[in-house]
Design brief:
InterPro entries: 3-OHacyl-CoA_DH, 3-OHacyl-CoA_DH_CS, 3-OHacyl-CoA_DH_NAD-bd, 3HC_DH_C, 6-PGluconate_DH-like_C_sf, 6PGD_dom2, Mito_3-hydroxyacyl-CoA_DH, NAD(P)-bd_dom_sf. The protein is of the alpha/beta class and 306 residues long. The chain contains eleven helices and eight strands. It is 45% helix and 12% strand. Strands 3-2-1-4-5-6-7-8 form an eight-stranded mixed beta sheet, sandwiched between helices. Bound molecules: ligand LNIPZVSO and nicotinamide-adenine-dinucleotide. Nicotinamide-adenine-dinucleotide (NAD) binds next to helix 1 and helix 4.
């Protein structure tokens, strides 16, 4: 089944007068590179900012690969169309390590490390250098959107845009409207989400929003099951794929989304909800302390070819 539902040959872009046409993604990692890809595919000009130039190079390579996957699906067998789709989309993406190179745009989406203080510092800096019309959004997995933006002046032009991994395939976008988000900004975020091929839902600024609040306990319990030795990682994953119809088992999904990010999310969910299901998991902490972050580091619960 074509999992890239929502992608059409005539890429939609918002038709409203204030359509978002220029986007900066801060953080060119797993998520930022995917968000940049879907915006570029939709005909928007994109800048990816990252503090790590090596990771910017990695992002460009993975975007090129994934644009080709999308192109092959859209233009089956027509090499000329596939190549022009990939080239035209890729040429819309610029990369830089300088924040000021991405400040003057219609929308900035933050997709940096899942740490409150680092996100706050970034938005406070951007608030100083971006023009008044620029909308800010965070792709946080579960940190309070209000807390992340607590230091910025443009609280009316700020909210949450939570994408799902891998961004070019997962059709959902959680749009989080803070009390301070203006209706105009909320509508612009919803329209932009649709313009990049997503089905948007709206939820309140609560820990884990919708998906992660439900996915969290499941994911945490799967790791504890492995830690107790109740079953092997392989069998836990096979069980949930064949027994519950999941496309990926919980442990391969954890490796896919990043064990480092999971520990940040877990501690935040425990702090904010007090739910014991989110208590620290020694096995997870051990893997992360050994630099085993999952696919992105070459090893997590499983080993991967680099
Ligand atoms: C201990 C934890 C406690 C607390 C945790 C709290 C919650 C958890 C927090 C974790 C971290 C953050 C989570 C985040 O905030 C929210 C999320 O992102 S949750 C994760 C959501 N994603 C999923 O669940 C993914 C499930 N997996 C799948 O859908 C599929 O396995 C797959 C990834 C799409 C891969 O599909 P497969 O069939 O297995 O493999 P293929 O390689 O054939 O791909 C299928 C199809 O898709 C195309 N494709 C795949 N990847 C890309 C890409 N990156 N770009 C473009 N296209 C892609 C591929 O070409 C195939 O196309 P086809 O040929 O089939 O047409
Ligand atoms: N991994 C997932 O499945 C997933 C899904 C949805 C949302 N998220 C959220 O998206 C965000 C990014 O997650 P990820 O998995 O892409 O992480 P990642 O580690 O793959 O990428 C983070 C990137 O941010 C860069 N970075 C860190 N601090 C920076 C700064 N101050 N300025 C600029 N760049 C900086 C890093 O160099 C890195 O390239 C997190 O908030 C995470 O919770 C993750």
């Amino acid at each position: 089944m074509n999992k890239l539902i929502g992608l059409t040959r005539n890429f939609s872009s918002s038709t409203s007068l204030n359509a978002i046409k220029t986007v900066t993604i801060v953080g060119g990692g797993l998520m930022g590179s995917g968000i940049a890809q879907v915006a570029a595919q939709a005909g928007q000009n994109v800048t990816i900012i990252d503090i790590n130039s090596d990771l910017l190079g990695k992002a460009q390579k993975s975007i090129q690969t994934n644009l080709t996957r999308v192109g092959k699906k859209l233009y089956k067998g027509d090499e000329a169309k596939i190549n022009s789709f990939v080239q035209e989309s890729f040429e819309r993406i610029k990369v830089s390590t300088k924040l000021e190179d991405g400040a003057d745009v219609d929308l900035i989406v933050e997709a940096i490390v899942e740490k409150l203080d680092v996100k706050q510092e970034l938005f406070n800096k951007l608030d100083q250098i971006s023009p008044a019309h620029t909308i800010f959004a965070t792709n946080t997995s579960c940190i309070s959107v209000n807390a992340i933006g607590s230091g910025i002046k443009r609280k009316d032009k700020y909210g949450g845009l939570h994408f799902f991994n891998p961004v070019p395939v997962m059709r959902l976008l959680e749009v989080i409207k803070c009390d301070s988000t203006s209706e105009e900004t909320y509508q612009a975020m919803m329209e932009w989400g649709k313009s990049v091929g997503k089905t948007c839902i709206t939820c309140k600024d609560t820990p884990g929003f919708v998906v992660n609040r439900l996915l969290g306990p499941y994911s945490a319990e799967a790791i504890r099951m492995l830690e107790r030795g109740d079953a092997s990682a392989e069998d836990i994953d096979i069980a949930m794929k064949l027994g519950a119809g999941y496309p990926m088992g919980p442990l391969e999904l954890a490796d896919f989304t990043g064990l480092d990010t999971k520990t940040f999310v877990l501690s935040n969910m425990f702090e904010k909800t007090g739910n014991p299901v989110f208590k620290p998991i020694p096995l997870l902490d051990k893997l992360v302390s050994e630099g085993k972050f999952g696919r992105k580091s070459g090893e997590g619960f499983y080993k991967y070819d680099k």
